[in-house]
Structure prediction request, 361 residues.
Amino acid sequence: MRRILGIALAVLLLGGVIAVALAGGEKTPSTATKTVRGVVGSEKSEYFRDPDVVKALADKGYTVKTETSGSWAMDQLALKDFDFAFPSSSEPAPEIEAAAGVKGAQTTKPFFSPLVVIARANAAKVLADNGLVKMTGKNSGTLLMGPYLKAAAEDRKWQQLSGSAEFAELTGTVFIKTTDPTTSNSGALFLAATSNVANDKTVVSDDAGIDRTAPLMQKLIRVQGALEPSTDDPFRAFISGSGEPLILAYESQVASLLQQKPETGAADNMVVLYPDTTVNSPHTFVPISENAKELGSLLANDPKLRALAVRHGFRPQNGVPEFTAATASHAAYLNPELAGIRQVSAPTVKILMALAARAKG
Prediction:
């Protein structure tokens, strides 16, 4: 009986093998991908390098390769070599479209990030004690742009601020380290916000407005010395313990650090200051080739990619609840609702670039 059962089982197994062979064998699911190449702001490079993002895009049929550039310099690149451009705000997009010969392209804004100023704890304390900052917690606060710009106009030095003497690292003129406003989005939008405050809380819209605000904008920029082309370098210097005590950054850089590398302790001595007047930065996807035409919409709407964008600190479209939930354990640093922050429009590209050129001298 045992021998008969063995023979019967062997026949069944052989029949199964023959059936699979006739059906062409067991097929392994595969996704045919199309490779697209893009130029992105440096603050998004880690997002596109994330293995989970790479896999999520591959599952949707894309292999994405990226290079970085300052957002306002993208229109100077050989854009025919790219399938898409992904500047850090909407303002450079029309110039990129024109340079790439795709004027009127269907752009998408998958996510955005407000600008913040990150400060060493000692610097934030001195600024708060002197009325330039309003602290909202141990690691968070609001930069009061009016008092800060008044101090900048007067070339105020740290040594002139009450309580600074006990902190030897706080010397020289008080300034915020930014990026080059002629090439980098964060530097340009910082001028957009500060010029608005300096222009009686009105968007600079003509040559007279440029003339009124240019002297102060020059002070904000010239005091910094050499300017970085993107936000990545000064941010990395800050979290490594070097660099200036006040730097301009994207909230996404801070939120990403808090979520992904909390064990490093890099944020222990960090205070996140939200300027009370700001210009938000909607990262704008510009498709250049047909291959990338649907990618922007995918980045904006796919649930997995939205969740990964939040993990990298970005705020998805209509994504305040998603951002708030993901960063709840780091609420001591962040302002998810942007409560108390005045959000203003940027000047036109022509006016903003003229203002940036004047600021650099």
